[in-house]
Amino acid sequence: MRMSQTLIPTLKEAPSEAEVPSHVFMVRGGYLRKVAAGIYSFLPLGWKVVKKVEKIIREEMDRAGASEVFLPAVIPAELWQESGRWDQYGAQLLRFKDRKGGDFVIGPTHEEVISALVRSDVRSWRQLPLNLYQIQTKFRDELRPRAGLMRGREFIMKDAYSFHVDENDANREYKKMYDTYQRIFTRCGLAFRAVEADTGNIGGSLSHEFQVLTETGEDALVACDACDYAANVEQAVARPPADPQTASEQCQRVPTPGQHTIAEVSSFLGVPQTRLVKTLIYLADGQPVAVLVRGDRAVNEIKLRRALEVTELLLATDAAVREVTGAPVGFAGPVGLKIQVPIYCDLEVQALADFVVGANAPDAHLKGVNVDNDFKPTAFGDYRTAAEGDACARCATGHLHAHRGIEVGQVFFLGTKYSRPMGVTFLDVDGLEKPAQMGCYGIGVTRIVAAAIEQNHDKDGIVWPVPLAPYEVAVLELQQDDDNVIATSKRIYEELSAAGIDVLYDDRDERAGVKFKDADLIGIPFRIAIGRKGVAEGVVELKRRNGTEVRKIRIPEASALVAAEVIAERR
RNA sequence: CGGGGCGUGGCGCAGCCUGGUAGCGCGCCUGCUUUGGGAGCAGGAUGUCGGAGGUUCAAAUCCUCUCGCCCCGACCA
Question: Tell me, what's the ipTM?
Answer without folding.
Answer: 0.85
